[in-house]
Amino acid sequence: MAGAAIGLMGACDIVVCARATKIRPAYGALGFSPDGGTSWALARALGAPRALDLMLTNTSLTAAEAHATGLVARLVEDEELRDVTVATAHAVAAGPIRAMVRTRGLVRRAATRSFEEQLDEEARLIAESAGDPEGREGVRAFVEKRPPDFRNAR
Predict the structure, then answer these.
(1) pLDDT tens digits along 142-152
(2) What are the structural domain ranges in the chain?
C-alpha cells in the first residue's frame, strides 16, 4: 500500500489489513510531498517523529507495525482478508447507524476536546440515542433477551 491510499486509511473507521501488506508513503522517491491525508493519518497514528522518519527516509511499515500503532484496526492472515473484511462490513451495516455516527464523531473529536467537553457531548448524544428508534429497539432487545434488529428500527 502506498501514497494516498495511506491517507484513505486515516479516513476509514475500521481498517483490515493482511499480514503481508507493506505500507510505504513513497512520495520521497518521486520528489513529492504527501497528499490525500497521508501526513495527517501517519502523524496521528505514529506521532510526528515516527511519521517523519517514515516519510523522509522513504521506508515502510509492516502490517504488524501498522496494527501496533493503531493505523490498522484488524490484522488478518492474507487468505482471510476478503472474508474478514466482508464480514466486518456486514456487521457494521447491521448495527445501529445513528449510534455509530455519534460514536464516530465522538472518537474523531476526542483529541481536540477537554475531558469535561467530551463528557458533556457524550451525555447529549446518549440522550439522543435513548430517544431514537434504534436506541429503543436496543433496550427492548436487551430486556427481552434477544439480538436487536436495528435494520427494522430505522
Answers:
(1) 999 999 999 88
(2) 4-77, 92-153
Q: Do domains 4-77 and 92-153 have the same CATH topology?
A: no
Q: Regarding the domain with residue range 92-153, which homologous superfamily does it belong to in the CATH classification?
A: Lyase 2-enoyl-coa Hydratase, Chain  A, domain 2 (1.10.12.10)
Max distance between CA atoms of the chain, in angstroms, equals 61
pTM of this structure: 0.80
CA dihedral over 45, 28, 6, 109, signed as positive or negative: positive
pLDDT per position as a tens digit, 37-55: 999 889 988 999 999 999 9
Tell me the CA distances in angstroms from 142 to 64, 100, 118, 138, one per residue in order: 37, 18, 27, 6
Nearest to 126 by CA among 82, 94, 88, 96: 96
Nearest to 135 by CA among 113, 102, 106, 110: 102
pLDDT score at 28: 85
For the record, the C-alpha cell of 98 comes out as: 445513528
**CATH for 4-77?**
3.90.226.10
